[in-house]
Amino acid sequence: MAPGYPAGTSRARGEQFERRAEQFLLGQGLCLVARNYQCKLGEIDLVMRTGTTLVFVEVRYRRSNHYGGALASVTATKQQRLRRAALSYLQSQGLNESRQSCRFDLIACDGSHIDWIPNAF
Question: How far apart, in whole angstroms, are the C-alpha atoms of residue 12 and residue 10?
Fold first, then answer.
């Protein structure tokens, strides 16, 4: 259970799946850089690193794949918000997006099934 949130809230479930995704990616050899980076432009669930590449990870959970499931929930608007938040993160770290290799990965959790889509958009 996520600290500070009642067990049944969607935020608590979201944090639970973010932790699962983090553990999964650590097992795949990525290194954690930051969790839940927030700025006025949006939020990035996980910032990871593989080699010299920064990986911005969006974790999406849906109880089932009705209505398209977790993958379908990452709309063009959501992708744009993530890109803007990633640029804000890079700037906050003194990094330049033209010199820092980056990618956006998606962890989609439908029920208990996890899909990892590297370089999702």
Answer: 5
pTM: 0.83
Least confident range of 4-8, 17-21, 115-119: 4-8
Q: What is the CATH number of the domain that holds 86?
A: 3.40.1350.10
Q: Is 47 helix (H, G, I), strand (E, B) or coil?
A: strand
Q: How far is CA 68 from CA 6, 12, 30, 81, 97, in A?
A: 27, 22, 28, 20, 32
Average pLDDT, the chain: 85
What residue type is 11 in one-letter code? R
Please check whether residue 1 lies inside any domain of the structure: no
Please answer whether residues 86 and 39 qualify as being in contact, where contact means their C-beta atoms are separated by less than 8 angstroms: no
